[in-house]
Amino acid sequence: MSDNGEDNGTVDAVGKVTEALEFVERARGHLYSFHQLIGHADLLLGDASDALRDAGHVDAAERIETELIGHNVIEGRWTFQVVEEFDDTYWSLFRDHERRLREELTDGARHLHEARLKEKRRTHGRKGHEAAP
Q1: Number of structural domains the chain divides into
Q2: Of 48, 69, 72, 121, which is least packed with CB atoms within 10 Å of its CB?
Q3: Is 31 a domain residue?
Q4: Each residue of 94-107: pLDDT tens digit?
């Protein structure tokens, strides 16, 4: 049994769901990076198009402006729409399930596996190894 009264198998199983959520959170961060990188690239293309036009390459500038600048990254979607859809359909659902599982099985406690590991690995009575702040 854990310190909160849950059996170790439950703590481990809930911990795996939480760990999976942590990976989804990281993926979400990468998705936001993708969103910002693509947006910045689109703005740079605008600058490049202006420079091409200024250098007398009007056809090339127009081709960039009409065919590439503002183009959807996925059919019908800019990156902000991809981010919003991910948040609304997957990320929020995943978070809700992880939270519900913790509430049902561990009284809502988070990171019980890590707390158990910390207690096992810390040096009792040593500065910097306190159980809590």
Answers
A1: 1
A2: 121
A3: yes
A4: 999 999 999 999 99
Structure tokens, 21: 């959520």
Which pLDDT belongs to residue 37? Answer: 98
Cα angle at 21 between 34 and 80, to 5 degrees? 25
Q: Which residues pair with 74 in a beta bridge?
A: 77
59 assigned to some structural domain: yes
Give the position of tokens 């948040």.
87
128 in a domain, yes or no?
no
Task: Give the C-alpha distances (Å, rounded to integers) separating 64 from 27, 37, 45.
Answer: 31, 18, 7
Contact status, residue 16 vs residue 126, Cβ threshold 8 Å: no
Q: Look-up: residue for tokens 């854990």?
A: 2
Residue 130, pLDDT above cutoff 90: yes
